[in-house]
Specification:
Layout (H helix, E strand, L loop, with lengths): L10 E5 L3 H11 L4 E7 L2 E10 L5 E6 L20 E4 L2 H13 L8 E2 L3 E7 L5 E7 L9 H15 L6 H23 L9
Parallel strand pairs: 1-4, 5-8
Antiparallel strand pairs: 2-3, 3-4, 6-7, 7-8
Helix pairs in contact: 3-4
């Protein structure tokens, strides 16, 4: 049986409260432009809001005028979303906790995850969100997943509990060398003796 090959996240849709509160938080606090809105084509009394999460991919919300925010943390049962993580630059990451605090939004402050740094907080409807910043930039021609897969292999090989900076540095060096070897092999020409 052939697999159905996914190529990335198309969009994520949440059930939100109302239009104003959702726009205030996701556009006003998190800086995600409202790209479009239209009726929920399955439930006409709802509006479907589409926000650019920062990379052109969408995060959307079904909202109704009659709903109010409910800050009760969303349940963490099987099948429920635990949290949604957004990428931020290191420069922005260093400002996240302060800017959330200025707005009176509880947050965890910095949490070192080994290969990235994270700050967690909740939206006005109890959804746990994360602002995450990788500790590395992938070498040219490689992805974040390439670096993490290589660092993971190195971590397992040395018996470490989790990925550390040394694993990331060695993974980047390995991938960079792999690319250099490929370039060298592809530019080498075989010189054949001339036949008379």
């Amino acid at each position: 049986m052939s697999k159905i090959q996914a190529q990335g996240v198309h969009h994520i849709t949440f059930v939100g409260s109302n239009r104003e509160a959702t726009i205030d938080f996701y556009q006003g606090v998190l800086g995600m432009p409202l790209v479009m809105e239209q009726p929920n084509l399955d439930v006409p009394e709802e509006t479907h809001l589409y926000f650019d999460a920062g990379d052109g991919r969408l995060i959307t919300f079904f909202v109704r005028p009659s709903r109010v925010n409910d800050s009760t943390p969303n349940p963490e049962g099987i099948g429920n979303l635990h949290h949604l993580a957004f990428t931020v630059s290191h420069a922005t990451y260093t400002q996240v906790a302060q800017r959330l605090n200025e707005r009176g939004i509880w947050n965890t402050g910095n949490i070192d995850r080994g290969f990235m740094d994270s700050i967690y907080f909740r939206d006005p409807n109890g959804q746990l969100l994360e602002m995450a910043c990788y500790k590395f930039v992938p070498p040219e021609g490689y992805s974040v997943a390439d670096v993490l897969a290589t660092a993971h292999r190195l971590r397992v090989a040395d018996g470490s509990y989790s990925i550390q900076d040394s694993h990331l540095a060695d993974a980047i060096a390995e991938l960079t060398q792999r690319k250099a070897n490929f370039i060298q092999a592809s530019t080498s020409t075989v010189i054949l003796p001339e036949f008379l």
